[in-house]
Specification:
By secondary structure, this protein is of the alpha+beta class. It contains 2 helices and 6 strands. The strands form 2 sheets. It has a 4-stranded antiparallel beta sheet with strand order 3-6-5-4, covered by helices on one side. Strands 1-2 form a two-stranded antiparallel ribbon.
């Protein structure tokens, strides 16, 4: 069964690393120009300590790929949007600050 959140824009078909889901829900709530966020593969890493961080990495056919780091793991995120990289990074920073 697929779980949908944030008005069917957060596609939760896999697990999500600790602390990431609330950040993504705030991001989608505040940015209607983001069509969807699809969390991908989770892998363990040593450098993922402290608060949740999201780095926008490369463009994709319909948006951006990002890497989220939290709780000793990294997770790929596929963000479907027409936003430019600086605008998306700013939106992610605002969502991370907001609690």
């Amino acid at each position: 069964m697929r779980l949908r959140a944030a008005g069917n824009r957060l596609k939760v078909e896999h697990s999500i690393i600790d602390g990431l889901r609330p950040l993504l829900e705030r991001l989608l709530e505040d940015n209607p120009e983001i069509r969807s966020v699809i969390p991908g593969v989770i892998r363990p890493v040593r450098a993922a300590r402290g608060r949740t961080q999201v780095r926008v990495t490369v463009p994709t056919a319909n948006g951006w790929k990002a890497i989220a780091l939290s709780a000793g793991a990294r997770q790929e995120l596929f963000i479907s949007t027409a936003l430019a990289k600086p605008a998306l990074e700013a939106a992610l920073a605002r969502a991370a600050e907001k609690k």
